[in-house]
């Protein structure tokens, strides 16, 4: 079978001796319990022919070394500070080996599961299967449930299990349930004019919506210890929508920061596009604010605005 990986096509041969989980003894994969299911109402088993795309995370090599490297990358006292690895270097040091990848792929293929992609770092496999194939391969029942919030979901009734030699390579199996519901976690504070008064309120810029300033962002992200001002640097801010062109000037002037030279670079049709109904100083989104707040001494700022092709 041919599987595409990062622009290359590699040939993987299905292995022998992995006809089923029971032949070598099954080992349960930890970390797959879903707390919300404790109060869910069982509706019944899923349709075995239901399409169920899954992905399998493989274990990284040398996890302690990876943790140490991550600390060094952001430690200003370390000689490795900001010495990032290329994808090839990361794969060589921390990714699964080709033999380990093939062992997992071979197991999936013997269960009728077709592997469609392998990440460049050898740590994530994408696959297509039916619910029946997934249940047989991982020795787990997948059912439909009604959650307390009224959502109908499917989820695994227990931990997935695989042969011991395969289990030692797998970090997690994703796609056995669709219970996770992403939602914003911010909490809007009560209206308080005193708290939300901004120094950017002036005749030219209008009144802002109480955005954060440099001191607040420095404290929130614990940046003071880095002692970085942006002196002599060019910083790029990528926007996926338009912005009010005088908004950066409003921000810098209101915060008492000398405005750097700003260059707008349109990509695929992007550009400064003021939106109807947006008053000045209302559109400075969080990524831009975080960058601007660190630019007290920066030489220049490039705004890349991306056009979208549908």
List keywords for this structure.
disordered N terminus; 3-stranded antiparallel beta sheet; 2 domains; disordered C terminus; 310 residues; alpha+beta; 4-stranded antiparallel beta sheet; extended
Give an overview in words:
23% of the residues lie in helices and 22% in strands. With 310 residues, the chain is of the alpha+beta class. It has two domains: 2-60 and 95-174, no CATH class; 199-306, no CATH class. The radius of gyration is 26 Å and the shape is extended. It starts with a strand and ends with a strand. Mean pLDDT is 76; it is low at 1-23, 194-203, 274-287, 292-298 and 303-310.
> What characteristic shape results from the CA principal axes?
extended
Largest sheet: 4 strands, antiparallel
What's the quaternary structure here?
A: single chain
Beta-strand segment tally: 14
Number of helical elements: 9
Q: Percent range for helical residues?
A: 10-25%
What fraction of the residues are assigned to beta strands by DSSP? 15-25%
**Radius of gyration from the alpha-carbon trace, in angstroms:** 26 Å
Sketch the topology as an H/E string, one letter per element. Answer: EEEEEHHHEEHEEEHEHHEHEHE
Sheet with the most strands: spatial strand order: 6-7-5-11
Low-confidence stretches: 1-23, 194-203, 274-287, 292-298, 303-310
The number of domains: 2
